[in-house]
Design a protein that fits this description.
It is built from 4 helices and 7 strands. The protein has 218 residues and is α+β, with helices and mostly antiparallel strands. It has 2 domains: 119 residues, no CATH class; 47 residues. A 7-stranded mixed β-sheet has the order 1-6-7-5-3-4-2.
């Protein structure tokens, strides 16, 4: 038996933005102060020099600039890939190429895979432990849906409904009747949506701990 739960919103928020902006502003202010001091010192030096010495200094700067440009032109060409070899595509996921043997701790919600089973599952935790579904677990990810990259943030209620619809459409085995289960929903916050999060997830969870001993999806 599965009860329809109101669901939980996953921990997918953005942190530290204000601190980062404050640090950047302080660095820019310090750089401006130093530049102002250097400009004042340079102006004093220029006023103390004769026209001949100033002309010689300008000529030296021009020569140095031409030398740097010449050296850069010798080695700054863009290298082209060899014929028949395509550049490697940019990585689009933070998930490791190989997840390694189970159990696997510290897996983030955006790296969960369909069918994953979780020990001591907490839908609001930043990471979870993925285990073999034949060992005791309290939850399983049974459905994933995605919005398109270009979609606007739809709001909390439509996200929640999309996740619930995914739960109801997920095929489950007859073994589901051996447990008292609930649906848990996870969907983006407005800030994680702005960071590219477009997935909604549906989990079935046991109310009594790590009692599920098999996969509940075909």
């Amino acid at each position: 038996m599965i009860r329809s739960d109101a669901g939980q919103q996953g921990s997918r928020g953005r942190r530290g933005t204000q601190d980062a902006k404050g640090a950047a502003g302080a660095a820019l202010a310090g750089a401006g102060k130093i530049a102002s001091q250097k400009a004042t010192q340079l102006g004093g030096w220029v006023r103390r020099q004769s026209p001949a010495r100033i002309g010689a200094a300008v000529a030296a700067v021009v020569v140095l600039g031409l030398l740097i440009w010449w050296l850069a032109s010798l080695g700054g060409g863009t290298k082209q890939p060899a014929a028949g070899v395509s550049p490697a595509p940019a990585s689009t996921s933070s998930a490791p190429a190989s997840r390694g043997p189970l159990p696997l701790e510290g897996v983030g919600p955006l790296d969960f895979l369909l069918g994953d089973c979780f020990k001591d599952f907490d839908p609001e935790a930043p990471t979870s432990t993925v285990v073999d579904c034949t060992t005791g677990h309290s939850a399983q990810l049974v459905a994933i849906e995605h919005y398109a990259d270009g979609d606007s943030y739809p709001g909390r209620d439509p996200l929640k409904q999309k996740a619930l619809d995914a739960c109801k459409a997920a095929p489950l085995t007859e073994k589901q009747s051996d447990y008292v289960l609930s649906y848990k929903l996870a969907y983006p916050s407005s800030t994680s949506w702005d960071n590219g999060d477009r997935r909604v997830d549906c989990y079935v969870t046991a109310d009594t701990g790590n009692v599920i001993m098999e996969s509940l999806i075909p």
